[in-house]
Amino acid sequence: MIDFLPFLKKMISAPGLSGFEGPIREIIREAWEPLTDELSVSKLGSLHGLKKGRGPEPRKRVLISTHMDAIGMMVTGIEEGLMRITQIGGIDHRILPGQPVIVHGREDLPGQVVQPPAHLLPESAGSGPVEMQYLLVDVGLRPADVVEKVRVGDLVSYAQAPLELTGDAIAGHTLDNRVSVAAATICLDELQTRLHDWDVWAVASVQEEETLGGALTSPFEIRPDIAIVVDVCFAKGPGANDWRNLPFGGGVGLGWGPNIHPALYRAFEEKAKALEIPANQDLMPKMSGTDAMAVQIVAEGIPTAVLGIPLRYMHTPVETVSMKDVRRVGRLMAEFIADLKPDAMDKINWEE
Amino acid sequence: MKSLIQKLVETPGPSGFEYEIRDAVREAIGDAADEIRVDALGSLIAVKGKKAAGGKRVMVSAHMDEIGLMVTHVDKNGFVRVTNIGGVYPMTCVGGRVLFMNGTRGVIYASDLKPGSQPKISDLYVDVGATSKEDCPVKVGDVCGFERPFQDLGKRMVAKSMDDRVAAAIAIEALRRLESTPNEIHFVFSTQEEVGLRGATTAAYGVDPEVGFALDVTLSGDTPKAMPRMETALGDGPAIKVRDASFIADPRLVDWMVKQAEAAGIPYQMEVLTAGGTDGRAIQMTRAGVPAGCISIPCRYIHSPSEMVDTDDVENSVKLLVKLLSEPIELD
Amino acid sequence: MTKKLEISAGKVPEIGPDQFALLEKLTNATAVSGDEHEVRQIVLEEIKLIADDVKVDAMGNVLATKFGRGENRVRVMLASHMDEIGFMIVKKHDDGLFEFERVGGIDERQLPGKAVLVGRDHLPGVIGAKPIHMTTRDERKKKIEVGSLRIDLGPEAGDQVKPGDWATFATRFEILGPSIRAKALDDRLGVAILIELLKHAPENIDLLVAFTVQEEVGLRGARVAAYRFDPDMAIAVDSTPANDLPNWDRDVENSRYNTRLDAGPAIYAMDGATIGDQRLIRLLTEVAAENEIPYQIRQPGPGGTDAGVIHKVRAGVPSLSVSVPSRYAHSAAGIARIDDWANTLRLLHTALSQVSPDLLAVERRD
Fold first, then answer.
1. SS3 sequence of A158-192
2. Assigned domain for C110 exists
């Protein structure tokens, strides 16, 4: 059993903000090369990996949809050698002051987000948390050098390095959603030694954090018969203890709600039980907040399942996840896919 | 070109009611295009060029709709209540004039104006000079746009609906000036952008392009205490959009656009807009995805009746667009 | 101006005992967004012998086709949604009471002190509220937080109810003189109308009827239904609020009523999701005038129907929304007039009978 922790750590140390996923795509491509039959890139930059099934053509297709883009920031202006920023994806501005970052200018420049003193801000900014428009990034260079190396539109990513915590837990930025890429990779790896009838399309999608752009367009191209969307979900932790939060390290989240096809939910529930993989219902009464919102309604509609990896401190640079859950999702998907018969779609209906 | 811009900005046509501006665009294009068609949502599509080696099917989208108001109620004294079509700032309406699609004219004002507070859309009403519901020449569902004449200030031009008629003019002018191209170019004059990029969404599906460019106005940061703070300024050239709130331009396309501008010696600026949306998004999300970018014309006072652009920026936008469309587009 | 065709079949449908019985069944059924099963089964039962083709798609939409006769038939899509607003049980607390979330837009002030039905078995429960004796005047000025409300099914609910189950208000269908009172008039009225139109399908067109899912959580089902049907034009049939109540200040006209009861089917010029195609608006208003069918224009403003996604599908579909007005939408009980229901059915049937290729041969314009 390969240890996927080094791969995950490599992924979360690489840039690849929404819309600019080039660097992370290359890392995933390298990992998927030996695990797939064909690799291609969509018009918007999503990575598509096909592992062919052994059934007769035309084979049914299952899509594993993960997203590889990261949240971060973008330079909107340069004033006296310091940069103004806006967000890419949803960032709580309260975690920014003092945060180590990298400005991807003409070269990568380590720096930090700084909070100006109150007397340099308008009165309305007050003594409370300072909004992003008032924060600055300092890379330690003099103004003339900054202007040469940085321009409006350059990207800024979190610089927090991955940390191995106790109990098989890992912390870092962009575990949302590169842990799902890791889970998909584990699944592809397991399938190397399992026979499966269906074609498997593993997709590392772009732009989930901004536009769901990858999730709207990749399924249009691939037209799968069913889709499994893998994303992080909320783990119980400080200030996060209500019905939306699943136990940390306590098993796979099985999405349930209008975004999910109930027959797929039941199929995954049964499979997890049979394999003694811990799993918990992850309620999504309205929408799932994941790529599944887009995938489900592409073209003529796609039966969709949502598998969740419980994660603490989402969208901060110190997101925390249990590797146990990452492996569980990978394995659950592999077993599910290996069991898909050519006529499995007959049971994916609305009769119950 | 100023007379073309004047003709377009002064033609009424809020979202969903673009038939007059469509006729004006069609007339301005004349026989400069190889073919013209109108789609299900009313967008006008003019095709020019045949795909040659290294060429692509390209969509260029400028929206021809403008913001406006629709009648929700006529009260017993003939005063007309309205709701907005697209993003209307009530503050810019008070004391202005409107023109209904049926020719009626009126004044727009606000009831309950409290000192120190801003009016809401529901405070606005239009006075068309009627005295009762019965003698009012407009009814629920009727539509009006803001009425303000075009003004040529020399280096600057001011009018309502520079958003996005100035871009429509740029597209028409580029279509006229285009001499040779390896691309098959679909110039889309889209409808209903202001209410959610609707015309471009369906036009893009129909055109099924390989690459797309939106043309729209963008905020400039060069007025007193401009918010949001922007680096774009009038006179610094057409802006190459990196992102707005609705989409992130394909970075490969952005780099290519920058190279073309530099090769042709056309001034340009980079644009990051933390608000707003443009047809670029609609193109990018079509079918299996389309690399899309946007040329933005810096504009002051957007969505007011007095939008201001720079004459040189407009001319340079035409030049840049012609340059981009005349070349094979290389993304890698 | 559309030509009246010589070929038009099917007598204009009317509202009678069968239609009341069907609407009663439909409104009493539980079908919250994402769990439209009960209504889907009723619809399938009603139409399986009339439609030429029936499918249930990947999201649970029922797609029924009735082919017409003659050449160059226009393909007309109709859409009404099967789902209603309601609740999902999210947690069982130690005291045996159930925490829940709303599905779809429900004003939280409509919740306390109501009876509900939970799950496929329609188990009765209540959303209680603290006794007034234990509240303070200040407290009563504030909304009761949804997070503090619970559904109580009695002490032995056991495993009959679990998180993930859905619930609705317990309101039962009733006829009150000229009115109907029921839950989910939005959009079981539409569903009932579509079933009647299928039963009396005019022969000049191909009728593509979509009973959609998940309208209340973002117009989701209609999008894939329209993609599949790929129609020439579409009409969404829904129910829209009539806020035609008196203003507290009696000197002030109610100028924001949206629609009024007894004023007939509401045709939409513009709502938050769609600017109606003027060619279709003209068709309906001219047909209404010629046939003396009352109608009203829904006040332009926020809100949306399935037309909001249908018109943007593929290369675009000329679309329109028509609704039966009803008061108190998205609360426990709505009230609609039987006449408005009947006139909506009449208007749609008569207008559909006059659809021809001429309608869409002209460019979209006023």
1. ECCCCEEECCCEEEECCHHHHHHHHHHHHHHHHHH
2. yes
